[in-house]
Amino acid sequence: MRLQNKQDEQGFTLVEIMVATAITSVIVIAGLAALTITGRAVRANEQVSDAQQNARMAMEMIAHDIKMAGFGPPIDPSKNPPPVGNCGIGATPVPILPGDNNPTIGVADTGPDQISLVVPLTVYPAPGIVAWQTTAPLGFGGGGFATVPINAAILPAMTAAGFGVNSFISLGGTVEAQVQNANAPITLTPSTVVPGPTKLPTGTQIYILQCITYQVIPQLPGGNPGADLNNICGGNAPCLVRGIANATVASFGRVLPNCNVAASPCLPIVNGIEDIQFSYACDGCLLPAAGLSEPDGRIDDVDLSLNFNQPDYISDRIWNTPPMIPSAIKMVQISIVARQQLVDQGLGEGNTQTGAGTLSNTFLTVSDHLHAGGVFVAGDAGAQIPPYASVRRRVLTRTVETRNARPWS
User: Fold this and answer.
1) Exposed site from 207, 216, 389, 393, fewest CB < 10 Å?
2) pTM score
3) What is the pLDDT of residues 354-382, one digit of tens each?
4) % the chain with pLDDT above 90
5) 70 contacts 401 by C-beta, under 8 angstroms
6) Mean pLDDT of the residues in the chain
7) Is residue 266 within 8 Å of 243, Cβ to Cβ?
């Protein structure tokens, strides 16, 4: 046997191993730091993108309905028509029902506004679908008409959409009437029988008129994240809901539709919507100066600047005293605040659901709503979970012309 000389043996000394371990640790730690920073940036971008997309979705829906508000012919006050659903000021029907959080002039809001709109609903022709249309000509005898012939096959779909006794319909956007008998044919109430010489051809589109309310359902302050009083948002509060609000609530001398009730018929349409604010530009809301008349076809110059600018948009009003009434509204400025729905809880994150992370350094002021005074109700900003400063937000503002608001003055 040949003996090996110990001097020929090769290996690492303890010092060499320690140096190698230290270098490897530095490389691994640097890699983890880069991974953490990249992960944070990706999550932040996703949160911001989601909030922005939610704000856009909400804006598109509200803007579309505002453009269609008051669809149909001008209201004839001589017939004393009742409001469509809860879209009325007392017994007076209105195409747009503003719901400012606090309509007291000069007093800031402490929560989101709401809005209710009279909008049409119909079904157009499509393969395999029966359109909501008349099946015979109307009024061609010269004496008007009191019934509307339809295909009975459309009644189930119309009923599911809210059609029934005392509901309102529009025929082709030219005739508005109230339903007395929701069968085939449709019988109109005596007060809305269509007089001659109105004539409508076969195939005239039938629209159901609905009072649709947009309302923010708040998260319970200090409660479980995502929870709301009546579980309307399904654990994703705050959320924006849309629907026919059959319930009402008294507020500052007004009666407003209210979606925030048990078994609400209003449905959540966009999660993460924390605030909506509305302000209105109108023609004829102000008393005319001496020698002038209103409306004059121009937006009222509220600040007397001889220019159309931001101060010409009005908020903090009840809109129930002429000349400041909803039918004078010609433009609506919408501001929407969307917030991130998931908190940052990735690798290396210090911001948690209840932690005091800082992502929003200051409280927002949106229109006449200072969030420091309350996000959903007065004084609740400090009780939000997660804390207000721990949530990213995006604000989107748009101005919409009420092209179909009726009656035009």
Assistant:
1) 389
2) 0.86
3) 455 666 668 999 999 999 999 999 988 87
4) 53
5) no
6) 86
7) yes
Q: Output the CA torsion 359→278→173→242 (10° steps).
A: 50
Residues 6+ away with beta carbon under 8 Å from 52: 338, 394, 396
Q: Which helix (H) or strand (E) covers residue 155, if one does?
A: helix 155-160
Cβ atoms within 10 Å of 195's Cβ, excluding its own: 10
Cα distance between residue 315 and residue 311, in whole Å: 10
Smallest CA-to-CA distance from 281 within 328, 317, 321, 214 is with: 328
Q: Parse the chain into domains and list their residue ranges.
A: 46-73+94-116+213-401, 123-204
Helix (H) or strand (E) holding 330: strand 329-339
Is the CA virtual torsion 260, 262, 266, 272 positive or negative? positive
Structure tokens given for 178: 């109230």
**Could you read off the pLDDT of 39-66 as tens digits, one per residue?**
666 676 777 888 899 999 999 999 999 9
pLDDT, tens digit (0-9, with 9 covering 90-100), for 61-106:
999 999 999 887 766 667 777 899 999 998 889 999 999 999 999 9
Residue type, 21: T
Closest CA to 390 of 319, 334, 341, 348: 341
CA–CA gap between residue 29 and residue 21 (Å, rounded): 12
Pairing verdict, β 206-217 and 186-188: unpaired
DSSP 305-371: SSS--GGGSB-S----BTTB-GGGEEEEEEEEEEE-SS---STT----SSS---S--S--EETTEEG
Dihedral of CA atoms 403, 123, 120, 194 in degrees, nearest 10, equals 100
209-to-101, 132, 268, 313 alpha-carbon distances in Å = 26, 13, 21, 28
Can you tell me which residue has the tokens 């956007």? Answer: 173
End-to-end CA distance of the chain: 117
Angle at 167 between CA 163 and CA 123, to 5 degrees: 40
The rounded distance, in Å, linking the Cα atoms of 309 and 394 is 24
Rounded to a whole number of angstroms, the CA Rg of the chain reads 30
Helix (H, G, I), strand (E, B) or coil at 388: helix
Is it true that the peptide bond before 185 is cis, omega within 30 degrees of 0? yes
**Amino acid letter, residue 352:** T
Q: Which two tokens stand for residue 224?
A: 């479980």
The alpha carbon of 209 is separated from its chain's Cα centroid by a whole number of angstroms, namely: 19
Is 397 in contact with 313 (CB distance < 8 Å)? Answer: no
